[in-house]
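$ ./design --mode recover --in tokens.txt
reading tokens...
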């Protein structure tokens, strides 16, 4: 049972670290183009688009992209990460779940 719990914890921890990095880059308006953002996060472009969509659709991140400035930005107030992290621990995002609604890697 403990290894299962550790795997869940580690998957959520990695996800939260990624969300923190996205938040920092978006707040600083230092994301660059979508391919540049993916590279900064160590993700493929497809993985970045999936994560971006998940943040916008599932977690209500008000993220938008400016083609003229070549950066993502917050359209409205950015999310409170402390509240968000508490929510994520209670309700892990779909990218951490498999088709059987179980935590991936567990």
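writing sequence...
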């Amino acid at each position: 049972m403990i290894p299962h719990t550790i795997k869940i914890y580690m998957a959520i921890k990695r996800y939260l670290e990624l969300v923190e990095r996205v938040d920092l880059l978006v707040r600083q308006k230092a994301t660059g183009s979508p391919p540049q953002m993916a590279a900064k996060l160590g993700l493929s472009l497809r993985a970045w688009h999936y994560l971006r969509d998940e943040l916008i659709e599932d977690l209500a991140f008000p993220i938008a992209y400016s083609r003229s400035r070549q950066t993502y930005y917050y359209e409205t107030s950015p999310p409170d990460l402390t509240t968000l992290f508490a929510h994520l621990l209670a309700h892990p995002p779909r990218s951490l779940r498999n088709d059987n609604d179980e935590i991936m890697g567990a």
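exit 0
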